[in-house]
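Predict the 3D structure for this chain.
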Amino acid sequence: MPSRLRISPLRPQHLAELGAVLRHPAVYEHIGGSVPSEAEFRIALEWALAGPPPARASERWFHYLVRHADSRVMLGRLEATVVGHLAEVAFLFAPSVWGCGYASEGLAWLHEALRQEAGELDFWATTLPANRRCQALLRRAGYEPVPPGVAPALRSYDDGDLVFHRRGG
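Done. Predicted structure below.
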């Protein structure tokens, strides 16, 4: 089945357009925190796009922009941090496209892209307990919930988050 998505590396020139799509109260309700200003959004992603600092040189950071393949409308972003055989993944999509399957398709693409780049990986993701949509998506993608204290140290983990794991393949 042909992909409905056009996925490419996220670049600084995309940040204003991406901010217009993702700086939405509904997005931040599901990831925690308040909606950042345009400047805060841009600075945070510019820092991320610069890659890991020297003290975290063993990490590889991946950031992708997701557009609709036909219309080229920006839908959201995918990201991952890879350390050894551990890949910590995340995705953010515009509320206007929630429930359309784009995040599921994007996550499947991300799994394959990371495997091609880094080989056999175990995939991890975290989410707020109230984010039922994310939990359902992760389960559909083959992730299983992990009991507290079982997961390795994850960069995206905040106290109280739920952790999900998908064995590599």
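The longest strand covers residues 59-68.
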